[in-house]
Design goal:
two-stranded antiparallel ribbon, single chain, mainly alpha
Length: 456
């Protein structure tokens, strides 16, 4: 499970994120398109392993190299990540929890089970790839056989490598799909309710935090927004956050639709855990909150929707009312679990609407005023978060981290001010919990109120 950064480091994280733009603003070289010779069929699509990338003169320098068009320490950054979630992902399969999960599911040892290896390693049929390397270079960038020999050649461009099989991670939608293939799930890989019941942690995802924090860590130069007089698309920061929210909800809709059309329905990962799993201490909060589909039924989790809705209010307000209506229908249909065809129909309809809105989300500009307005909108969504679950609260925390970091890049005072401290307190409401049922909704909403107060 990918975890958030430690609460003790929130202020340092925001400060670092503020500096990352200033320290790494270098104009990307723009080269004219060049003919790309067709790679031999035996090479294109071939995985070559990390050893072919790790030389000191390539991507294995122990430190960033000045005046180079890349950092050249990409492999070293991955290998020595402060929070080594990817490089150590195979080793996780050897720990007692993973072994217990495999036993509970009657699987072979997790280090030998495809269901585990497909997300914890680069599990491909290649003798050059060591599964013990975990999520290594080609797991995200694609098989390098088609471009490795040429990509450092003078005049060779990123686009040339993409034509030869590199995955274009500069494209936010492509990057989101790549990350979500494990962190949200797709047609071939997903942490479903069976895995969770066996002991696997629930997964969370937010594109900006997951690619711009110690969890990755960043190993690229940020492109200038302008190069050779041509405006370049923003591929990190707040734009990545917004696109990631849309992409994650759309992926969940596709997952829901696929499950509803199979013998795996109902699939309980789309429900709020605490609507079924909860302490029975006189009912407690569970009897105090308002259930959108009525008490006694499992509740659909709004975690993928609660933040995206606020983004749509900002960039596509005319779409919100109709989407709200359909999302309520979806929540009721998933909760009742009686009519899978209705679930499929509504999921596809919402996904189609969001596909039409997605270009506006990606093209949206986020100045200081608009960013502060978004922070206030999330902080003031008290009703939404009083009814929401811990998964939704996590999405709020991720979002406020991204938004505050964006402000700190424009003005470092934000990294030292009351807003950053308030976000840290909000983070503690979620991260300090040993068990999900300890989540205190009232305290979380109070922390949101404190964030709103800092921006008044």
């Amino acid at each position: 499970m990918t975890r958030m950064v430690s609460s003790a480091g929130i202020l340092m994280l925001v400060a670092w994120l503020a500096m990352r733009g200033a320290n790494a603003q270098q104009t990307a070289a723009i080269t004219p398109p060049s003919p790309v010779p067709t790679a031999p069929a035996i090479e294109q699509g071939r995985y070559v392993g990390v050893a072919s990338c790790a030389a000191g003169s390539c991507h294995g320098s122990p430190a960033a190299v000045a005046n180079a068009n890349i950092l050249m320490n990409e492999y070293d950054s991955w290998l020595h990540a402060p929070a080594p979630t990817h490089v150590k992902s195979y080793e996780v399969l050897l720990n007692p929890l993973s072994q217990r999960i495999a036993r509970n599911m009657n699987l072979p040892a997790p280090e030998k089970s495809r269901i585990c290896l497909d997300c914890h390693t680069l599990n491909v049929p290649s003798t050059a790839v060591e599964i013990a390397d975990g999520i290594s270079c080609e797991a995200c960038h694609g098989p390098a056989g088609g471009w490795r020999a040429e990509h450092a050649r003078k005049g060779w461009s990123h686009a040339d490598s993409v034509k030869r099989g590199m995955i274009d991670l500069r494209d936010l939608n492509v990057r989101a799909r790549m990350c979500m293939s494990c962190h949200v799930g797709n047609a071939t890989r997903q942490v479903n309710h069976e895995l969770i019941a066996a002991g696997h942690p629930m997964l969370t995802f937010e594109l900006d935090n997951f690619t711009e924090s110690r969890l990755m860590p960043p190993h690229w130069k940020r492109q200038s927004q302008k190069a050779s007089g041509r405006k370049l698309p923003q591929s990190h920061g707040i734009t990545a956050w917004a696109v990631g929210q849309s992409a994650a909800f759309r992926q969940e809709l596709q997952n829901v639709s696929r499950h509803a059309g199979s013998d795996q329905w109902p699939e309980f990962t789309y429900l709020s855990c605490d609507s079924c799993h909860h302490p029975l201490r006189e009912g407690g909060w569970r009897q105090e909150r308002n259930h959108s589909t009525g008490p006694g039924r499992p509740q659909w989790s709004p975690a993928r929707w609660v933040i995206l809705r606020q983004i749509l209010v900002a960039v596509a307000p005319a779409e919100v009312a109709s989407l709200d209506s359909e999302v309520r229908e979806l929540a009721a249909a998933v909760s009742r679990m009686r009519n899978p065809q209705r679930v499929i129909s509504i999921s596809r309809s919402i996904d189609g609407r969001l596909a039409r809105v997605a270009p506006r989300i990606e093209a949206a500009a986020w100045d200081r005023a608009r960013t502060e307005k978004m922070i206030r909108a999330i902080a003031r969504d008290g009703r939404g978060f009083r009814e929401a679950d811990r998964q939704s609260a996590e999405q709020a925390v991720y979002s406020l981290l991204s938004l505050t970091s964006h402000l700190a890049q424009q003005d470092a005072a934000y990294a030292r001010g009351g807003l950053a401290r308030s976000v840290e307190l909000l983070y503690k409401q979620v991260d300090a919990l040993r068990h999900p049922d300890e989540f205190n909704h009232a305290a979380f909403v109070a922390a949101l109120d404190a964030i709103d107060a800092t921006l008044r």
